[in-house]
Amino acid sequence: MKKLLISPSKMTLGEQENQIYQNILKQSSELSLNLMAVKVENHPDDFLPWCYELLNASRDRINYDLLEPQQLPVLKKLHDQLISAISFLQVKTLRVAPWPVVSVFIEQHKDVIALDEQLRLASYVKSIREQSLKDMIPEDLLAFTGKHMASLDPSTYDFDVEWFASTKSAKVFHQLIGDLPGAFDEALANIPLEGDITHYEYQQFVAAYSKIFTDSSEKPTLAPATRLLAMRRPDIFTPITNSRLDALCSALAVTKLKNSDFERYWQDIVKGIQAMSWYKMANASNELEEQLVSIKALIPCFFYYADNKTPDSSNYIKLLNKPKRSTTKTGKTQRRGKESAEILVDRALAADDIPAHIRSKRDSIISEVQKGRSVNETISLMRTIFG
User: Which of 81, 116, 209, 227 is placed for a possible disulfide with 187 were both Cys, Cβ 3.0 to 4.6 Å?
Assistant: First the structure.
């Protein structure tokens, strides 16, 4: 372990990497005796695999029984630093990587980053993008805005809606979008669905978006706005979250954005990413690349830290593993609105493998889905009953 800890001092590190290394050493010093007890056989020569190795050693191979209670927060901070460092280093490669290297990296890591699931979300949002927010059913609005709730039927929403950028903590944003969806539609109308987007059009969006918050107790913040922009134009706008903002800004070599700095988001993030060679070179030579090109501004999201546990952290996977009929804290089944139930059922019944006698049970299926039963579960029950 000692050899592992000191090995970056022999690497050629840039100023940012060296500062990260020094911060990691500070946390490690408080855990030195515990870390020294961990056997290390892998000694990477580069800083990125070194971060992975130290994270693995300190998280998965350390003896937690020997840790004092006051050391646990220190260990967590060390892990957070290493995860942030890995995200920074991987996103930083986008500054110099050509398109073939970027697409190969994503394909090689597709299982770890749950790529198929993330692409299903992107595809679903594309299918509803031309709808106005005020006309969306509540479940589709959650998918577009990035907030998970138990009402999302995993048989229809076979993805975690919080991939790319979660907005679950933006309470005022969700309250306003529930009360004033038309105002958000007016703001998004400034962003064309195709073609280039000018600085002026973006500024018009920002002005309209900010106006919505005039009478609220909270000022407009950048993160949820970028989620809206990224879902409307995933080829132009990269979503940000507070937890990943440090790594992203460091990787792009820009000062960290404040949560209200809309102008710098355009100049430093949007235009900065568009200036990268892989972004300008992006072209499709296979089906996967065709999907990636259409959402190329989301590609930095695939370079943040992920491990084998990441796919299982998906809210979609967690919902699949829950009892089929979700209940509220009071024990009552969560009901759906009739409009939502009708739309979800009609989508499922439109599948080619649904026989006519099951389609004829549409009203009964809708009734069960309104009560909280999943669409697939209800249709399967009908198949069992009626053959």
Answer: 209
